[in-house]
């Protein structure tokens, strides 16, 4: 465990920088490296100084916090903080430690720092963290492990996200969800269905069977792409 977690604050709002800098300085586990007003300033600091943790606003001029983290090959640990809750789903792809909303809740901030400390105390565990994403239900954000999802089905202006234990029903289009889930874990098999690749048990001519026994149709316009991306190179025949 390092003595103190070297922390860089990135926020284009002057008041936000002051508040974040102050809470970092007051935390006995953190050491403030600097407070930057933009991704450009932060990049310069990262080039010159050792940074373990970046507390980064998302909506900033020139480059958003999310774009900034995406641009780095080996970013430090990141806690995103923003006034805009709708960014939560998009942020999952860069595996932040946490996602906080303004105004800053001191208790939630402390909980986030504890997550950071756990990463440093158990580095092997941090590598093994499984992909996850957030969806909004009512006033809350539900964290869902990708591996727990069986399939997702369009339902008017909602998407049913089906897991073995429950079904989530966020207000979302399946096209939006597919676009935000930029990974290779899910495959589109029908205009109304996204399926977890690992949950597929059997592929038939016009449908597929999941490990749960659920039968999912394969749409004509998706069949060729599905066979190419999911089956090509893995087909073993006599």
The helix content, as a percent range, equals: 25-40%
Shape type: elongated
Number of helices: 8
What proportion strand?
25-35%
E-strand count: 15
Rg from alpha-carbon coordinates = 21 Å
What number is the mean pLDDT? 87
Helix and strand element order? EHEHEHEHEHHEEEEEHEEEEEH
Give the neighbour order of strands across the main sheet: 2-1-3-4-5
Contiguous uncertain segments of 5+ residues: none
Structural class: alpha/beta
Distance between the termini: 54 Å
Main beta-sheet strand count, sense and barrel state: 5 strands, parallel
Descriptive overview:
The chain has 238 residues and is of the alpha/beta class. The model has no long low-confidence stretch (mean pLDDT 87). A five-stranded parallel sheet has the order 2-1-3-4-5, sandwiched between helices. A five-stranded antiparallel sheet has the order 10-9-8-12-11. The chain has a three-stranded antiparallel sheet with strand order 13-14-15, with no helix packed on it. It is elongated, with a radius of gyration of 21 Å. 31% of the residues lie in helices and 30% in strands.
Outline:
It contains eight helices and 15 strands. With 238 residues, it is of the alpha/beta class.
Provide key terms for this protein:
238 residues; alpha/beta; five-stranded antiparallel sheet; 8 helices; 15 strands; 30% strand
